[in-house]
UniProtKB/TrEMBL annotation:
Catalyzed reactions per annotation: Endonucleolytic cleavage to 5'-phosphomonoester
Record NCBIfam families: RNaseIII
Domain RNase III as annotated: residue spans: 5-123
Record text on subunit structure and interactions: Homodimer.
Name of this chain's protein: Ribonuclease 3
Native species: Aphanizomenon flos-aquae FACHB-1040
Record GO terms (molecular function): ribonuclease III activity
Main location: cytoplasm
Compartments where located: Cytoplasm
Function: Digests double-stranded RNA. Involved in the processing of primary rRNA transcript to yield the immediate precursors to the large and small rRNAs (23S and 16S). Processes some mRNAs, and tRNAs when they are encoded in the rRNA operon. Processes pre-crRNA and tracrRNA of type II CRISPR loci if present in the organism.
Amino acid sequence: MHELLTFNNEKLLRQALTHRSYVNEHPGEEHNERLEFLGDAILNFLSGEYLYELHPEKGEDELTRRRSALVDEKQLAKFAIEVGLDLRIRLGQGAILDGGYNNPNLLSSTFEAVIGAYYRDKNCNIALLRPIVEKLFASVPENIVVSRSNVDSKNRLQEWVQSSGNTTPPKYVTRQIGGQSHTPIFESDVFEVVNGKEIWRGKGQGRNKKDAEKAAAENALDNL
């Protein structure tokens, strides 16, 4: 078993592996969405720290693009499979029939939840989590990081905004507009903030918040 799945509190690990679709069929269980939120924040921090130390010659824009490539849905789904989460996710029958065990969105979300749960299980000692996560980051080939970092629409939109002298990052307003609990549909609007005023730039949809925001950024770039 992968070291990331070694917990003192097995209940916490079980919660991290539990998708909302499972809870819908098994009342009394706890789903992993709050842990997912925490894990997302931790991964963004650790990936930023990792890249900051690894590439002292890189500037902010390049580091931001590389960070996005390390923690995007596709890469986190691969990490999830690498540590064995695809065999352990607790899903409802509907999600299973829809191929949930191979769904990149569910895999990446569960990986984030496990990261958050591991952090909590170790008394919020990030030093115990850092070497495990950095080992995963280091396993991603450099050429893959570079190729992904060059196509991230959110980063390209932010660069466009900054090129006009605006230091305020774009603002995304994202909400779920439909779908089932295991196959949600999100919509995002992106605004450029100029002197405190929000200027609408684009709209997009996706199966998770990240994809919806990327689609909105792509739409904004097309409009611009």
